[in-house]
Design goal:
It is a single chain. This protein is an alpha+beta fold. The protein contains four helices and three strands; from the N terminus they run H-E-H-H-E-E-H.
C-alpha cells in the first residue's frame, strides 16, 4: 500500500463533518461556510449533493489562512 493510500485510510478513520457541523466548528453561519468553499478554496469532499469536511483539512486550511502568524514549515 502506497503512502497516499495509507493517508486516505487515515482520513477515513475520522468521521466526515457535514456543513452544519463544520460551520459550528468554525463558528460561522452555514452561508459563510459555503462562501468560503466557493471563493477561498475551503477543502471539502462532495458526497452526492452534499459537502463533507475533515477536521484535519479544516485545521490545515485555518493554519494556511491565518494572518500575522509565521507560515507552517
Amino acid at each position: 500500500m502506497g503512502a497516499e493510500a495509507i493517508a486516505a485510510v487515515d482520513l477515513l478513520s475520522e468521521p466526515l463533518l457535514d456543513a452544519r457541523e463544520a460551520a459550528k466548528l468554525l463558528h460561522v453561519p452555514r452561508s459563510t461556510l459555503y462562501e468560503l468553499v466557493r471563493s477561498r478554496g475551503l477543502p471539502h469532499v462532495k458526497v452526492g449533493r452534499g459537502l463533507r469536511f475533515t477536521r484535519v483539512d479544516l485545521a490545515v486550511w485555518i493554519a494556511d489562512n491565518s494572518y500575522g502568524r509565521s507560515p507552517r514549515p
